[in-house]
Specification:
21 helices; 15 strands; alpha+beta; six-stranded mixed sheet; binds flavin-adenine dinucleotide; disordered C terminus; single chain
């Protein structure tokens, strides 16, 4: 069964020579630590049943997703991240890898499972204590208790500290009264709410003894087992969406709904029977951010899902470009494959290189997440991990939108047909840039965290000395404005260029803020005025993370004279990734004297050359994504094939 939109059939075999590049070996490199698990899932899901459906209507799609959820409970992969005491494996890293594999298929199913086991189950696990785990985790895991993660309100999404829903403690009844005080406090866009959810983790302002203790999470039943809406709860469907039609997003309103004292997920704060509030974390601000920090797995999962969807789009587009021919070559008279047109290579080959870069950066973060879960990260490493997850989530989801549009255009009209999967992939991943943290707001978080670390470095220690030396070097380079002699093909220099740009932008931002505050500006206003600068810093941080992760992966495979063909290919993909990023941001590197005009021309020449050199391996490079035919082929909800060559 072909996985591409229908192109004119061709007899020619793929131009890849398997003796030169082993795509299985490449797949193992991309799969990383969880290769075995990924292979297991490929085998388990390569069944007709998991073939993404072309759903004709929302209701049918939601019903299919509901059934698919039940089927997922019969696989061992959904429980990996839960504690062993409840049948899980305590492997949060493996659970993210399993989620990434699911995201090669139907993204409504992926998101629905993410809401149930990642957000709802994850919140109960991370914010609750033993009593909540014992009472709810088994039925969350087997999906007999479908649930929601109700944080966002109509009036407040990115500003979680501004939420308005209240949970006022009544000591006489030992209950919390959960209430929506105004329309803008309705919980909005909530996954699993419109159709299936029976319980919600509701984020509300906790009030005890008349004092507002800030936002906390409580478990609130919203429907009974028969699906009847709970008293005092009003549920509304959000209506048709731009994508993810198989997910039932809803709006929740609470009218003085009473829940018992144990409904508070009390890992970070406890309320005694008499209403006395206590917390192991004294600072309300730190408590709030610790609570959010405990939920970063969801953000990393979305980043992984975006990378998977990007790979599916590239798989489709590269295969199409390999098969389809347009315009004759005057020297041979033969029609030319799309991928042999240099501008088509320019569209797709750097995009494949970016997909590799994001895969390696994601894998490094998944490792760190597991390390944090195992208690192997100290406080500053945990903070750095949160920063890097925010950065890569924003980068990966923006990259998904950009690349899927490119893939759609690369397939011409065929890419506009639903049977190519590309329209649905674009529509479904679109919102990834908004949920689990709006990307622009996440970039501000990244910049603020980098500034905090920078300020801590400037306050003393070895790190401070290093930072200062780099900062001085950066300023001298700026003033002299003599382009540094650069061998753009030297991997160490490539990474250094991206690192130096990040340090330069960070240093400039810190100086800008310091100057504004010294001149009497309010620090928050000064930071707000520097938002453009923060966005540049966030993006520079993403590029550096990607380049470092890619370089480390290439080095772990061997490089130079001893490298085999796979490592050599990977090194060239890394070069293309970094050089195409430098080319895109060349204005910055020229303006700041980091590269000269000759370097700029060399970068473009090398990007052209690498696109041409890698073109014969384009199919092997996407083969290594390991996308089972079942994930790319489409059937209708009634089971028929849609526009695919058999
Ligand atoms: C399909 C879907 C499913 C969802 N599922 C859930 C769910 O299950 N549970 C849940 O709790 N939520 C869910 N959400 C909500 C989602 O998390 C929020 O939409 C998201 O956090 C953004 O909030 P907002 O919509 O209020 O946008 P806003 O925060 O209002 O942002 C709107 C725009 O303003 C910009 N902006 C905002 N603040 C700033 C600032 N300080 N500086 C500069 N620019 C700024 C943003 O960049 C953005 O461009 C879902 C949303 C959708 C669409």
């Amino acid at each position: 069964m072909s996985r591409t939109p229908t192109a004119a059939p061709v007899d020619d075999p793929c131009v890849d020579d398997p003796s030169v590049v082993d795509s299985e070996q490449l797949k193992r490199v991309l799969d990383g630590r969880h290769h075995g698990l990924r292979e297991e899932i490929r085998a388990a899901h390569d069944a007709d049943w998991f073939t993404p459906r072309l759903h004709v209507d929302e209701q049918a799609h939601q019903a299919w997703v509901g059934e698919a959820m039940q089927r997922l409970t019969r696989t061992p992969h959904q429980v990996l991240g839960f504690p062993t005491a409840y049948g899980g494996a305590d492997q949060v890293g493996a659970s993210v890898a399993a989620f990434e594999m699911l995201a090669l298929g139907d993204l409504s199913l992926t998101v629905k499972s993410g809401v149930q086991w990642g957000l709802f189950g994850g919140a109960v696990q991370a914010l609750g204590t033993q009593v909540h785990h014992d009472r709810y985790l088994p039925s969350i895991i087997d999906f007999s208790l479908p649930g929601c993660f109700a944080m966002t309100e109509t009036g407040h999404g990115s500003d979680v500290q501004g939420l308005r829903t209240t949970a006022v403690y009544d000591p006489a009844a030992e209950e919390f009264v959960v209430h929506t005080p105004e329309d803008s406090a309705c919980k909005d866009y909530i996954g699993n709410a419109a159709r299936d959810g029976r319980m919600a983790v509701v984020f509300a302002r906790l009030v005890t003894h008349g004092e507002d203790r800030g936002v906390h999470a409580l478990l609130v039943p919203i429907r009974d087992e028969a699906g009847v809406t709970a008293a005092g709860v009003d549920i509304e469907d959000c209506g048709p969406k731009a994508g993810l039609a198989g997910v039932d997003n809803g709006r929740l309103r609470f009218d003085h709904v009473r829940v018992p004292r144990e409904a508070l997920l009390d890992r970070y704060a406890h309320v005694a029977a008499d209403g006395t509030y206590s917390s192991p974390i004294a600072s309300a601000n730190r408590r709030f951010f610790s609570m959010l920090g405990a939920l970063v797995r969801g953000r990393l999962s979305i980043s992984g899902a975006a990378i998977s969807a990007t790979k599916v789009g590239l798989d489709v587009a590269v295969r199409y470009g390999q098969e389809r021919r347009q315009f004759s070559d005057p020297s041979t008279g033969e029609e030319v494959r799309l991928l042999d047109h240099p501008s088509h290579q320019r569209k797709l080959v750097p995009a494949v290189a970016r997909a590799y870069a994001f895969t390696f950066a994601q894998a490094a973060l998944v490792e760190e997440l597991q390390a944090g879960h195992d208690g192997r990260l100290d406080q500053s490493a945990s903070r750095r991990l949160e920063t890097d997850i925010a950065a890569v989530k924003a980068g990966a989801t923006w990259n998904a939108s950009r690349t899927l549009q490119t893939a759609r255009e690369a397939c011409g009209g065929a890419g506009y047909l639903a049977s190519s999967r590309l329209p649905e992939l674009r529509a479904d991943t679109d919102v990834f840039t908004t949920f689990e943290g709006d990307n622009t707001v996440l970039m501000q978080l990244v910049a603020k965290n980098l500034l905090t670390a920078y300020a801590a470095g400037a306050a003393g220690g070895l790190g401070a000395a290093r930072t200062l030396v780099r900062s001085l070097a950066s300023r001298v380079a700026d003033r002299v404005r003599v382009p540094w002699p650069t061998d753009v093909l030297d991997p160490a220099r490539q990474v250094a260029l991206l690192r130096e740009r990040e340090e330069h932008v960070l240093d400039g931002l810190a100086r800008r803020l310091r100057a504004a505050v010294s001149a009497g500006a309010d620090p928050t206003a000064a930071a707000s005025a520097a938002q453009d600068h923060m966005q540049v810093l966030g993006r520079a941080h993403v590029d550096r993370l990607l380049a470092v992760a890619f370089d480390e992966r290439v080095r772990s495979c061997g490089e130079g004279a001893d490298a085999g063909p796979t490592a050599d290919l990977l090194a060239r993909v890394r070069d293309l990734f970094v050089l195409s990023r430098l080319e895109e941001d060349m204005a910055w590197f020229l303006a700041h004297g980091r590269l000269g005009r000759a370097d700029a021309r060399a970068v473009t020449r090398h990007v052209d050359r690498l696109c041409a050199e890698l073109r014969p391996h384009a199919v092997a490079l996407v083969d290594a994504f390991g996308i089972a035919p079942a994930w790319s082929a489409r059937t209708t909800t009634t089971g028929g094939q849609q526009g695919l060559a058999a």
